[in-house]
Write a structure and sequence with these properties.
- The relative contact order is 0.11.
- The protein has 3 domains: about 10-80, no CATH class; about 90-175, Ribosomal Protein S8, Chain: A, domain 1, CATH 3.30.1370; about 185-400, Alpha-Beta Complex (Cyclic Phosphodiesterase, Chain: A).
- The protein has about 400 residues and is of the alpha+beta class.
- A hairpin with a 5-residue loop joins strand 4 and strand 5.
- A 5-stranded antiparallel beta sheet has the order 3-4-5-7-6. Strands 9-8-14-15 form a 4-stranded antiparallel beta sheet, with helices on one face.
- It is about 35% helix and about 20% strand.
Length: about 400
Amino acid sequence: MGDVIFTDIVDVGGRKFRKQSGSIGETIERSQRRRAAERTRAVRVAAEEDGDELFREDDDDAGKEASVSEASRAVDETLAACDEDGFVQTAGGLWTCLVSADADLVRHVTAHDADSMRDLEKNHGATVVLPSSNAAMAGGIKPPKPGSIMLVAPSKHAAVDAKRDLESLTHRALRSPKLQYTHFVNIPLILGLDGEALVGAIRAFTRHVLSSTYASGCAIDPSILTEPGHAHLTLCMLKLYSDEARAKAVAAMASLSTAIRSTLGDPPARIDLTVKGLGAMNDDMSAVDVLFLKVHEVGGGEAVNMICDAAVRAFGDAGLLLPKDDGPVKLHATVMNTRLRRGRGDGELPGGRMPFDARRVMETHGLLDCGTVRLSSVHLSRRGEFDVELGGFYRRVAECCLV
């Protein structure tokens, strides 16, 4: 091609023209490329303005139809293609996919499974891209938004395998005790008028224990006492560290609601519980970590056990229960828990729990009677967050009504 900037100027009839130094063939070829580019640009603009009809036929101009066909291929090459499984092929031929993961889960995987992450990249020729990544990526690929990990691979097969391995790493991370439970499925005991009576009975019990002469000698301090306004029966403990997991949990609650109604009626028959008597999670009352209130269904029915089994089944089927949590549940309402114990105001004590001596508590309050409560709902709640509208109870994410 000739130089179109630094070229000779000629005068023809008083008008000045640049003198083209290239051959006539080059000139024609250049003109054809310019017209093709203009047609491609016109097609792209039309596609952006009319998403329902990318191309229109023109029977009067077969040549134009052929040009549009060529332009359509050019558009296809510049646009990313996404399949039904969420794998995206970029314009440069690379394949990307996202794995849903909160920042805490991402930090845990990258910190504690760094070698496995490097093996993943090496084995599949893939690149792991985090939301915080500042590295420039080929093809203009941008880091994912917070809440996801992106994988970039040379083929869809490699992307599929890399995603499978990354999901395996996130599942392994969830089994670590370093990642705390975020949510739990529970039956509140404090909603309604009878719930207020239960809360009052528990508060009176805790006041009496803390003011006793034996409390300090038995390693009982206020920090190990649970808040009476949070009294509940725990059905499932969950680690929901991704938008995907949280969506599955809400869907599992809907499945649980259906199971309850198909078994107990729509609406379910009334379910009442007596809350009476103290128990511990171990046989040695001189070294207790968890002290709880016993619950019994009025009339000796099995409705509560059925709800508990249905909850475990629903969340287990959704793949949200850890292996150690996928089993029979002992229904109880905790009143003391050494996991809550604080030392000198600087967080949990190092080296694990420090149990307390519950023998004097059992002698004085072993038959503690907190009355009868009517069950009104099953909640999917978030740990550590509380709702004023629910009297300070745990924040509700989803609910299954029992009344």
